[in-house]
Design brief:
The complex is a heterodimer. Chain A is an alpha/beta fold. Helices cover about 45% and strands about 15% of the residues of chain A. Chain A is built from eight helices and ten strands. In chain A, helix 3 links the parallel strand 1 and strand 2. In chain A, helix 2 runs parallel beside helix 8 and helix 5 packs across helix 7. Chain A is globular. Chain B is globular and about 60 Å long. In chain B, the strands form two sheets. A three-stranded parallel β-sheet of chain B has the order 1-3-2, sandwiched between helices. In chain B, strands 4-5 form a two-stranded parallel ribbon. The chains are: A alpha/beta, B mainly alpha.
């Protein structure tokens, strides 16, 4: 009898939680619609820039930000990514990676459609594309404005407040860049196991670790620090197989799917990141 | 199990006393897991990065580990009664010899138990674990002249310390930190991550249950992703002959070598006394 009552209570609890979740989701979508409409009509980019410029003054900013998009997310699109790239550019984050786990049918965003390819690597991009960047610089020259470098420092004086920002380096990471890539590196090492270089790596574990790190960086085309901050766009917190070798010390923040993501949200994430203490095991 | 030292600071007690309270809390949490029907628990007790701490603290932690493992060995009857198997995952060769012996003894003594599993990550980092897996393949695979096409993520996964454990469903981290600190980075690709602000020694059953409820709420959103992963894994198994005799023989030899190393650790140090 007690067992049946417990099961019933458990089921009721879940129905209650599911109802709360549904109502919460509805509220978030209505709020997102309202905010988007407000932003569209108010064009309040000045306020957003102010918020983000306060973030520039933080003592601790990530050098490399990674965005993780869940397989069932329906709200992250090219427009949102461009906004986030813009925010990162203003704040002075030089490197950004996008890990989109969706398929093309489910909303996967191909960065090559709005970013400029960088060098020979198909996964490395620059944003904004140089045409847009040139127009920005021309506008700056006409108006005599400040130049903001990628590390957030400025020079010159602004006459009308318009700013020039350095291009952001963006990487598109796929599911094949995680576990499968580590296995590929292992296979390559195995195939070259009789060479003196690999034999040297096998003498000490730390040497092998460093060797694997170097090979992974080379294959990924990553000449950047490991991601320090990650924003997960999902209904739950999960890393979905993101770069198991590289994100061991990444601070993760979950932005619930369906909630509106604006400059304030981005600034909040940065302020939270600035407050966290990394002890590195000590 | 994060937050022992911060708890110690807030209570104005010694750091080691904070760690000791943390261990007592672990015993409580394991009891809650047992009551809830959770069959396998992995706990991150000591990272390789923690060797950077002061000698005093590291030695204090090792003394605590010695005390607790010795106590466990006195209670093996109870462990056998509940069918609890102890596994220590990590690079135990980095630990003092006497602690290695205690760990080896605990693992060997409970190796036949198969109802409940307690995995203790000691002298562990995920990078070291993955490197160890690569090293195992590099050093032992060529003995039987295996083709490189056999080497894929499935094989590497089978060479990890957690070879005989399913991937975790829920990762529960206390003290408000929202990073993974190099813990099971390979295994947690489809785990629900739950971060709570409470410090580990202060965790209550309500905090614990909040984590369980969060997992039960969130797991259905991961079903499709997990199903895809299982399909991908099955395809990999098929394409790389993972279940072929040569690969299974290699894995069996690896298990035998690991067991032999434990036995050697157990008897060598005993014999040396």
């Amino acid at each position: 009898m007690m067992e049946i009552v417990s099961i019933l209570i458990g089921r009721l609890l879940f129905i209650l939680i599911a109802t709360c979740e549904l109502l919460q989701q509805l509220w978030h979508r209505l709020h997102a619609l309202a905010r988007r409409s407000y932003d569209y009509w108010q064009c309040d980019s000045h306020h957003h820039h102010e918020l983000l410029e306060r973030a520039i003054e933080l003592q601790k900013l990530p050098q490399h930000l990674v965005l993780v998009i869940a397989p069932d997310d329906r709200y992250v699109d090219a427009a949102l990514l461009k906004r986030i790239f813009g925010y990162a550019q203003i704040v002075g984050i030089p490197y950004l990676s996008v890990y989109d786990t969706r398929t093309p049918k489910n909303g996967y965003v191909d960065l090559s459609r709005f970013c400029q390819t960088s060098g020979n690597e198909s996964r490395c991009f620059l944003w904004p594309p140089s045409q847009q960047s040139k127009e920005q610089r021309q506008q700056v020259q006409l108006n005599g404005c400040k130049t903001v470098h990628s590390n957030g420092t400025t020079n010159g004086n602004a006459s009308n407040g318009a700013k020039h920002y350095a291009q952001l380096q963006v990487y598109q990471i796929g599911t094949a860049d995680g576990h499968a890539l580590i296995a590929d590196v292992c296979r390559e090492l195995y195939e070259n196991r009789s060479t003196p270089q690999v034999q040297e790596l096998l003498k000490e574990r730390q040497a092998l670790t460093d060797g694997i790190s170097a090979m992974l960086s080379k294959r990924l085309g990553f000449v950047v620090p490991e991601p320090e901050l990650g924003i997960i766009f999902s209904r739950l917190t999960c890393i979905y197989g993101l770069l198991p070798w590289h994100v061991r010390f990444t601070e993760f923040h979950t932005h619930r799917s369906g909630c509106y993501f604006e400059a304030k949200s981005f600034a909040k994430v940065l302020f939270k990141y600035a407050r966290c203490e990394q002890r590195w095991g000590k | 199990m994060d937050g022992n030292r911060r708890f110690a600071r807030s209570q104005q007690i010694d750091k080691i006393e904070g760690h000791s309270r943390g261990f007592s809390k672990l015993a409580d949490v394991l009891r809650w897991c047992l009551d809830m029907g959770i069959r396998e628990v992995t706990t991150f007790a000591f990272s390789i990065e923690n060797f950077k701490r002061s000698n005093e603290e590291v030695e204090g932690l090792f003394n605590l580990a010695r005390e607790k493992f010795s106590k466990l060995l006195e209670e093996t009857n109870r462990l056998d009664e509940h069918g609890i198997r102890i596994r220590v995952i990590g690079n135990i060769e980095l630990l003092p010899a006497d602690l290695q012996r205690l760990i080896a003894t605990a693992m060997l003594r409970t190796e036949n138990n198969d109802k409940l599993f307690l995995n203790v990550a000691f002298a562990y980092t995920s990078r070291d674990e993955i490197t160890q897996a690569v090293e195992t393949v590099m050093k032992h695979y060529e003995d039987d002249d295996m083709p490189p096409t056999d080497i894929n993520e499935r094989l590497l996964e089978a060479c990890l310390y957690t070879r005989h454990s399913p991937p975790p469903d829920l990762v529960f981290r206390t003290s408000g930190e929202t990073r993974l600190s190099d813990f099971m980075m390979w295994q947690i690709k489809s785990s629900v991550l739950y971060f709570t602000n409470v410090l580990w020694p202060q965790i209550t059953i309500w905090n614990f249950m909040a984590g369980i409820v969060a997992y039960q709420r969130d797991r259905r959103h991961l079903e499709a992703y997990k199903r895809e992963n299982r399909l991908h894994s099955a395809q990999l198994d098929k394409s790389s002959d993972f279940y072929s005799l040569r690969v299974q023989r290699f894995l069996h030899k690896m298990d035998a070598n690991r067991r032999k190393l434990l036995s050697t650790t157990n008897t060598k140090i005993k014999g040396g006394r």
